[in-house]
Amino acid sequence: MNMMRAIAAIGGLTMVSRVTGFVRDVLIANLLGAGPIADAFFVAFKLPNFFRRLTGEGALTVAFVPLFAGHLERGGLAAARAFASEVWALLLAVLLALTLAAQLTMPWLVEVMAPGFVDTAERFNLTVELTRITFIYLPLISLVALLGGMLNALGKFAVMAAAPILLNLILIAALAVAMAGAGMPALLLAWGVAAAGLAQFIWLLMACRRAGVMVHWQWPRFTPQIRKLLVLMAPAALGAGVIHVNQVIDVILASTLPTGSVSYLYYADRINQLPLGVIGVAIGTALLPLLSRQLERGERKGAIDTQNRALEFGLLVTVPAATALHLIAGPVIEVLFERGAFTPTMTAATAAALKIFALGLPAFVMIKIFQPGFFARLDTRTPVWIAAAAVVLNLVVALALMPAYLHIGIAAASVFSSWFSAITLAIFLYRRQALQIDRRLLLRLPRIALAAAGMGLALHLLTDPDGAVISVAPGADSSIGGLIALVVAGIASYGLLAWLLGAFRVDELRAALRRPSLPAADKSD
After folding, report:
1. If 0-12 CB within 10 Å is exposed, 13-18 middle and 19+ buried, where does residue 307 land?
2. Range with top average pLDDT, 8-17, 95-104, 224-233
3. The whole model's pTM is what?
């Protein structure tokens, strides 16, 4: 399994997903703006996604993939498939029970998720109605996470990475219908979410059948392997999802602020999620099965080298992305969203949140890189304690900053807690000798920082004090052409500086993509 090839495949498809996601969000902003209806839909969309992190990607995947990889190494495909079938049966039963319970208690769940909506009956009732529809997405996408984990363990990353594209295309189609005047946009979007869950489920099911790992339908049983999985899943439910737990806290707190606060944070986070999704998620997804199989074979040094190269590559891309998003947040939000119902006031409020979120981007990505180091070693307890501390820290800081800074204080608290989590995870890995920074990485980090600083200076010179583009293109002034020129200038300046300073070498990138396994650290740098 080649990590760089896997990251490239996942990252490329994730980029397509993010681009279609931007189209979706631009249409939502045009139709709904950042008002009460938009707030209601974003809460309705957030609730099933939060539970999905707990029952699917957040807990199940990090516990399931190392065990599945172990069965694959020791007993072959048949043993791994039998284990997956046991997990499938239990997961399906739990999901059906959870979905039924949620439908019956939806007003209470919405009240917990968005307590600030209770005082506005129309917005509260709309949120309840929309969430009942979107919650259908939960059982389907959680099963998708299981099927995708099986394919990832086999080194087949493309199918799962492409699945979110289906969600975006279906929601874009729903928005197109709404723009034609065929129905209420929020209601059509909610049904689009449910339909997308079904489409993704069928997509993954067909892929597993082709790969020869189709699960067998059976009654759920508490076998020893299932008990072991549950023991690992319990802490992982929080440990893998600290970012998402904090996002839920952000929604709860933002619902108590002026109307639009939930939407400002949503739109800003969507932009921030582009480098996080393309780089952080891609690395984390590729890293977990690779580390699991290396450690299963006793290749401890190889696992440490793999994590070093993942960290090096993650920061090589993330540090400049964070710098750029912080400096040109205004033009980015204006060009992407300011039209239709999305006003200049909404642009300013969203850009302010994006500037803060960008400062935490390297930490968000490092969390994705460090957590597999624990999960691959079947340690899901340590991340949960770190996550719990980060969640408490996020809440305390947000409550302290909200009175003065409103939604910007919530964004700052999320960033602060993420840096705490990333640094603490690194310290624990280092103390266990599971993270050993090699000479190559130590030499590359300051060069990456210098190249990003040089790019930041170039972007600063190309924008005026208000953040508008300075005549990069004739008459551009924050237009699409001006923003594209600004982004190209940033990429070109960073790439040139990074190459000249030795932050990366072209031959190493080519070799990493060509070789079946990641090369060991280069001691000659």
Report:
1. buried
2. 95-104
3. 0.69
H or E element in which residue 149 lies = helix 137-153
DSSP codes, 443-493: HHHHHHHHHHHHHHHHHHHTB-TTS-B-SSSTT-TTSHHHHHHHHHHHHHH
Taking the C-alpha atoms of 48, 381, 306 and 369 in order, what is their torsion angle to the nearest 10 degrees? 40
Between CA 435 and CA 369 the distance in angstroms is: 11
Q: Which of 266, 269, 136 is nearest to 192 (CA)?
A: 136
Alpha-carbon gap, residue 130 to 252, rounded angstroms: 17
Of 53-67, 299-313, 364-378, 412-426, the poorest mean pLDDT is in 53-67
**Cα–Cα distance measured from residue 326 to residue 375, given in angstroms and rounded to the nearest whole number:** 32
Predicted local distance difference test score (pLDDT) of residue 354:
94
Structure tokens at 19: 């681009």
Question: In this structure, which long-range contacts are made by residues 187-191, counting pairs with CB atoms below 8 Å and at least 24 apart in sequence?
Answer: 187/129, 187/130, 187/133, 189/28, 189/41, 189/45, 189/130, 190/41, 190/44, 190/129, 190/130, 190/131, 190/133, 190/134, 191/133
Please name the amino acid found at residue 265: L
